[in-house]
Amino acid sequence: MVHNSLNDAYVENIGFPVIFNWISIIQDFIQDLPPEEPETVPDDVAEAPAIEEIDDMNIQHGEVLTDRKSAFQAHLAAVKSKEDVDRVMRILKSNTKICRATHNIVAYRYQTEVNGRPIHHHDCVDDGEFGASSKMLELMDRMKADNVMVVVSRWYGGIHLGPDRFRHINNLTRQILSDNNYGPKKQ
After folding, report:
1. Where in this chain does the record put each Impact N-terminal domain (predicted)?
2. Which of 26, 70, 143, 144 is such that its CA lies 20 to 30 A from the CA of 38?
């Protein structure tokens, strides 16, 4: 119905801008929609617990660093499998603040054994902050931080930080790993 109206407005105004006509048609269509009925849940159906209530991954959160209106925060969890990595991301993204971050940069390393031989697994995800996660993973490798995952959330503040953003991401990664006793032990 609305599709036909939009198409008619286009055909009638070939060669002229139609965006304002389309907006009027869509506004009229939305106003004519019947109000939504709230969903009712049967009394015998228990409400599912929020994912934060079942967080047994013991996720650690670092301090928030702010630079020129951009904010950064590191999160860390011990992981032993790809399923753990996926679960940590689901738990983190269930937090609306973390979910709304402009970037959630991820790096993880864990080790498994096959036939008594250690197998090393690692990966990283830039989430739009190109090159940041590989630097995090390189830092984790140099610190020999195994069976751990670090996520650095960045909320962009509108001012370009240039290479400083990579310095902040690496410093927060190093700090949260050190604070949680990952990496080489000091004598």
Report:
1. 68-177
2. 26
Tokens of 53: 């209530």
Whether 143 and 170 share a structural domain: yes
Residue burial 23-36, b: 16+ Cβ < 10 Å; e: rest:
eebeeeeeeeeeee
Give 46 or 122, the one with higher predicted confidence.
Answer: 122
* For the chain, percent of residues with pLDDT exceeding 70: 86
Q: Which helix H or strand E contains 73, and what residues bound it? A: strand 70-78
| pLDDT greater than 90 at residue 134 | yes
For residue 64, CA distances in Å to 36, 68, 73, 112 come to 40, 13, 5, 33
Strands 103-114 and 70-78: unpaired
Instruction: Please determine, for residue 56, whether its predicted confidence score (pLDDT) is greater than 80.
Output: no
The CATH number that applies at residue 78 is 3.30.230.30
Residue pair 74/172 in contact by the 8 Å Cβ criterion: yes
The predicted model gives 118-126 an average pLDDT of: 92
Who contacts 35 (Cβ-Cβ below 8 Å, separation ≥6)?
none
Residue 68, both tokens = 């020129």
| Alpha-carbon span 2 to 62, nearest angstrom | 49
Q: Count CA atoms within 13 Å of residue 112 on its CB side.
A: 10
